[in-house]
Amino acid sequence: MLALAARAPQEMDLVLSPVVLRLPPATQLSDAAFFELCQANPQFRLERDSDYNLIIMPPAYPDASEDGSEVNYQLKHWNKTQAPVAGHAYESSAGFVLPNGAVRSPDIAWLSRAARTMAQQAGGFLAICPEFVVEIRSPSDRLATLQAKMEEYLANGAQLGFLLDVEAETAYIYRPGQAVELVQGYGQELSGEPVLPGFRLDLRPLRRAA
């Protein structure tokens, strides 16, 4: 099984943005082979785009990781209150094979119980697009790249998406068939209706200390 050679720590520090490895058609990896590659190289955050190119993403910045933990905490707390109809909340280590063939790992994802029951395994991943996704911008992320990823989620079945640019205290809300809603200022909440009934993401804990 192909494995990626680990770089020295000082070399890793120089990788500030995702690296795309473009593979010839004859060497493109199946879902199962890509899952094995991810398992063999846990030091890397890997995705695959719809053209089967491999994407190596830098480690999350500490602040972005903390923000993801906060969002996941709020989502899981809401999810527990929905018993017995609770769904499944995932953090960034989960991979999903989208209908277009891409393998994505949103920072936060959620599937209803019914959708999770119908989802098939695809080489260790779930072959389904999450109904709700959150991406949190790190300093290494280009906003346009994340916006394109959010559009990809919608095109593949997502019903709600939040793109959070915490440094700018800006949120982008994505819903199918609607213009992207821009929310500025983190002294408020974002509604998860109707996909997540009663869920409101409190943005105030994400605000940076002065």
Task: Give the arrangement of secondary structure elements.
Elements: H1 9-12, E1 19-21, H2 31-40, E2 45-48, E3 54-57, H3 62-80, E4 88-91, E5 96-97, E6 103-104, E7 108-111, H4 113-118, E8 120-122, E9 125-127, E10 132-136, H5 143-155, E11 160-165, E12 170-174, E13 181-184, E14 189-191, E15 200-202
Parallel strand pairs: 10-11
Antiparallel strand pairs: 1-3, 2-3, 4-7, 5-6, 7-10, 8-9, 11-12, 12-13, 14-15
Write out key terms for the chains shown:
15 strands; 2 domains; six-stranded mixed beta sheet; three-stranded antiparallel beta sheet; 210 residues; tt1808, chain A; globular
What does this structure look like?
The chain is of the alpha+beta class and 210 residues long. The protein folds into two domains: 49 residues; 145 residues, tt1808, chain A. Helices cover 25% and strands 26% of the residues. It is built from five helices and 15 strands. The strands form five sheets. Strands 4-7-10-11-12-13 form a six-stranded mixed β-sheet, sandwiched between helices. A three-stranded antiparallel β-sheet has the order 1-3-2, with no helix packed on it. Strands 5-6 form a two-stranded antiparallel sheet. Helix 5 links the parallel strand 10 and strand 11. The longest helix is centred in the middle third of the chain and has 19 residues.
Name the CATH architecture of the largest domain: Alpha-Beta Complex
Whole-number tally of structural domains? 2
The counted number of beta strands is: 15
> What is the CA-based Rg, rounded?
17 Å
Distance between the termini: 48 Å
Q: Would you identify the regions where 5 or more consecutive residues have pLDDT less than 50?
A: 5-15
CATH superfamily of the largest domain: tt1808, chain A
CATH fold type of the largest domain: tt1808, chain A
Name the beta content range: 25-35%
> In this structure, how is the largest beta sheet organized?
6 strands, mixed
Order of helices and strands: HEHEEHEEEEHEEEHEEEEE
Note the total helix count.
Answer: 5
What is the approximate shape?
globular
Biggest sheet strand line-up: 4-7-10-11-12-13
| Class per helix and strand makeup | alpha+beta
